[in-house]
Amino acid sequence: MTIEIAGSKDTLQKFIFDNAAVRGEFVEISDTWREIQSRQAYPAAVKTVLGEMVAAAALLSANLKFNGAIVMQIHGDGPVRLLVVECDSGLRLRATAKLAEDAIVADDASLSDLLNATGKGRFVITLDPADKMPGQQAYQGIVPLDGDDMATVIENYMLRSEQLDTRLWLGANDSVSRGLLLQKLPRHSGKDDQVKQASEEDDLETWNRAITLASTLKQEELLSTDIQTLMNRLFWEETIRLFDPAHPQFHCSCTRDKVGNMLKMLGQAEVDDALAELGQLAIDCDFCGKHYAFDKVDCAQLFASDAPVQLLIPASDAKH
């Protein structure tokens, strides 16, 4: 069959294999990826890993069952100390990386070289509902950095934490971030044991065939080929149902209130010490570069408020 997909530079295309509990997604992110890169200059190897995380976050966020966001973080023990990508259920993305002072990063540095030099790297996925019920907390899963590349790290996390067979193919360069996700879904329908067993056998056969086909995809091919061509090239013999495409875009959710919450988390004593030294606090968002300034009056108002402090990820670093 020939698969027709409406063209767009930033596109996420969901699909499902007919008569099998196997689904897939392709994502292609170019404008948004260049917008993210325009905020900071990253070494080539860091750019590759961060771009792969951007594609992966979009792929996973497309299946969110709530109004909220997925936040993916890697806390590293090498020259890269932190990678963060956030994507909400509307596929609005932001991302940033923090390097150690005087970090030297080779262009061919591996994931372990960058983030797991002494085996202490950690991978964190947070599911953060936008409209929390009273007392509800964001769900957070933390696992060792288990894998030689970003796709393997996420596959291992999904199998361990979500019990979902998931395979990923990820790639990124200066121009584009692309990815393919395949998932084998559990079967809940079918009361007759023989019917259910036959369905599960069909699912496994389709799953294995899809994995075999997708495994022929080379990194260079993934990065240089549009979604429609890739789907036709890989799955032209399959019966596939397409969903309406979605379109990722850059969006930073930083606000003055969130930055104020971050300052409150530091504590009044530390903030007062910084104010005594600097006169005011200058804070730049790591994701979008927006500048915030807090003087003594602003900070006094922060700590006079009884509003709760809730901040999943600091929007910025206070420069003091």
Describe this structure in words.
By secondary structure, the protein is of the alpha+beta class. 35% of the residues lie in helices and 28% in strands. The chain has helices at 31-37, 44-61, 111-115, 150-162, 193-214, 219-224, 227-235, 256-266, 268-278, 296-304, and strands spanning 11-17, 22-29, 68-75, 80-88, 92-99, 122-129, 139-144, 165-172, 177-184, 240-242, 249-250, 280-285, 291-295, 316-318. It has a six-stranded mixed sheet, covered by helices on one side. A hairpin with a 4-residue loop joins strand 8 (165-172) and strand 9 (177-184). The chain is globular and about 70 Å long. The termini are far apart. The relative contact order is 0.17. The model is unreliable at 308-320 (pLDDT under 50).
Features:
globular; 5-stranded antiparallel sheet; 320 residues; disordered C terminus; single chain; 10 helices; alpha+beta; 6-stranded mixed sheet
Brief summary:
This protein has helices at residues 31-37, 44-61, 111-115, 150-162, 193-214, 219-224, 227-235, 256-266, 268-278, 296-304, and strands spanning 11-17, 22-29, 68-75, 80-88, 92-99, 122-129, 139-144, 165-172, 177-184, 240-242, 249-250, 280-285, 291-295, 316-318. With 320 residues, the protein is an alpha+beta fold. Strands 7-6-3-4-5-11 form a six-stranded mixed beta sheet, covered by helices on one side. It has a five-stranded antiparallel beta sheet with strand order 8-9-2-1-10.
